[in-house]
Amino acid sequence: MAKKPENLSFEDSLSELEKIVTDLEHGDIALDDALKQFERGIKLVRNSQSKLENAQQKVAVLMQDEGVDTLKPYDVEGE
């Protein structure tokens, strides 16, 4: 039985999401299974987003403690 999304690490959630997307893109699954996979994916995304928001809040608190006022967006080269 698959773990609940809230019990997975962020990295495990991403890995499972990648697998779900790959399976759905191939289209070789029955409709009922595809819907179950899609629903699982939505739960994983929501939980991952929550974990990211919590991490961002922790970083903001830590930066305030250090006297840094704001976070700057991460600039990825080539984007």
Structural notes for this entry:
It is a single chain. With 79 residues, this protein is mainly alpha-helical. It has 2 helices and no strands. The protein has helices at residues 10-26, 31-65. The longest helix has 35 residues, at 31-65. The chain is elongated. The chain starts with 9 loop residues before the first helix and ends in a 14-residue tail after the last helix. The model has no long low-confidence stretch (mean pLDDT 87).
The stretches of 5 or more residues where confidence is low (pLDDT under 50) are none
Helix content: 55-70%
By oligomeric state, this entry counts as single chain
SSE string, helices as H and strands as E: HH
CA radius of gyration is 17 Å
Report the span from N to C terminus: 39 Å
Number of strands: 0
- Choose one word for the global shape: elongated
**Beta content:** under 5%
Total helices: the number is 2
Give the structural class. mainly alpha
* Mean pLDDT across residues: 87
Notable characteristics:
single chain, 79 residues, mainly alpha, 2 helices, 66% helix, Exonuc_VII_ssu_sf, Exonuc_VII_S, hydrolase
Compact overview of the structure:
The protein contains two helices and no strands. The protein has 79 residues and is an all-alpha fold.
